Amino acid sequence: MALPVPAVIVLLAMGHVFSNAVRTLPALAADVLQRDLGIGPDALALLTGVFPFAFALAMLPVGVGLDRYGVKPTSLVLLLLGVLGAAISAFSPGLGAMLLGQVVMGMACSGMMMCPLTFAARNMGAAQFALWSGITQATGNTGMILSASPLAVLVEWQGWRAGYLACGAFALLVAVLVAVAVPNSRPPEAKAGRATLGQDLRQVLTLAASPGLRPCMVLAFASFAGMFGVRGLWGGPWLMEDKGLSRLLAGHVLLAYTGALIVGPVLAGWLAKRFGHRVLLLSLGHAMAGLLLLAMLAGHHLPAWWDTSMLVLYGLTLSSQIMLFGLVRDVVPEDQTGRALSANNMAFFGGAAVLQAVSGLMASLGGGNAAGLATFAVALLASTAGFVVLQRRARQAQAGAQNAAR
Questions:
Q1: Distance from C-alpha of 134 to C-alpha of 366, rounded to nearest angstrom
Q2: How many CA atoms does the CB half-sphere of 202 hold within 13 Å?
């Protein structure tokens, strides 16, 4: 069954739907997770932080796999691994097994967005890629709808374990569709011969540290962490414990935030395609996101409409992060696309793992949910400043090289 390129991208993005659903599932189930597993807030932060840590580590082999073996086999392996991780989590009797389940799912989800993006990068021009990277992100972010109001109902009815079982069943269905409908296409590297696996892995790290990608790595370090930290952990407790909302009402607020995360990437992709100036848009978007999160915390005494408004604006501005993939794509040759995109995603989730742990520490020191959220606001502002400085240095170095060549 041959599908057009856009349809294949959307189908592959269903894996990203699964990824977003399972990694944000704890937000509205934090209290019952702690109760059933017998853990406190610091252990909960560890539990949710190990997912992005495993995700970041797995980006190295995923990037190599995409360039060596292609999108279809890599996607199938990851989806089936996701089914296994969801099952382990659903039947976990305690913290240890739950940690294992989160590690397996983190590894599985590491390439769920890279698969459709790599396929798009190899089958579309730069302008189309800018738009479709936004559509891919938006499609994947619909997974967070599953872990907003619907999850709140499911948790109240059947408990948090049922959520993981439902996600696992969804991943299995997507794996079957990918096996049937995604074409087998050999990546450019497969046609040209291969380096050793060690050389492949070193090249991913070398790309991540290269001057062309370094500014993107700095911004990515806090970018996804800011999204994941709010939607995946602290947003729910803040709304329920600090603002006094019920689980269902908190789910509605997070659903509005999720809507912004669905609309935002498409809007960001359109802006990048229509106007360019991605560096400026990325800088403004991330700086505004940090300030909006601080503004939400400053209005702790205001009604829930304030939090809803700030979170919607926060999601829209932070969605500019999708432009990072276009910047990364432009500085590497086609046969290194998978590695470069994976290096960027490694920074996304490595930062999420580190900042998740830091936010848990800040919360446990007495700052509570507000301190956990403030951690990400400060990180966003600091990473934006680093991004601007490194971009300026990169432009100056490029101009110097061009002058020397003349």
A1: 38
A2: 5
DSSP type of residue 26: G
DSSP 8-state code for residue 241:
I
Report the interhelical angle of 114-123 vs 337-362 (nearest 10°): 150
Distance CA 174, CA 14 (A): 7
Of 4, 318, 380, nearest in space to 183 by CA: 4
What's the rounded mean pLDDT across residues 241-260?
85
Residue 377 near residue 227, CB atoms below 8 Å: no
Q: How far apart are the first and last CA of the chain?
A: 53
State how far the alpha carbon of 80 is from the alpha carbons of 19, 29, 178, 269, in Å: 13, 25, 11, 30
Token digits of residue 139: 């499609």
Burial (0-12, 13-18, 19+ Cβ within 10 Å), 305: exposed
Residue type, 376: F
d(CA 310, CA 295): 7
CATH architecture of 5-181+197-397: Up-down Bundle (1.20)
Residue 56 · residue 346 · CB < 8 Å: yes
H-helix or E-strand spanning residue 244: none
In terms of C-beta density within 10 A (0-12 exposed, 13-18 middle, 19 or more buried), how is residue 379 classed? buried
Q: What is the pLDDT of residues 173-232, one digit of tens each?
A: 999 999 998 888 766 555 444 555 566 667 767 776 677 778 888 999 999 889 878 876
- The Cα–Cα gap between 165 and 86 comes to 6
DSSP class of residue 91?
Answer: T
Q: Is 327 within 8 Å of 126 (Cβ atoms)?
A: no
What is the DSSP code string of 38-68?
A: T--HHHHHHHHHHHHHHHHHHHHHHHHHHHH
In this structure, are residues 146 and 261 in contact, taking their beta carbons and an 8 Å threshold?
A: no
Domain boundaries, the chain: 5-181+197-397
The predicted model scores a pTM of 0.72
Residue count of the chain, please give it.
406
- Among 117, 126, 168, CA closest to 12: 117
- Whether the Cβ atoms of residue 345 and residue 113 lie closer than 8 Å to each other: yes
Lookup: tokens for 27: 């937000």
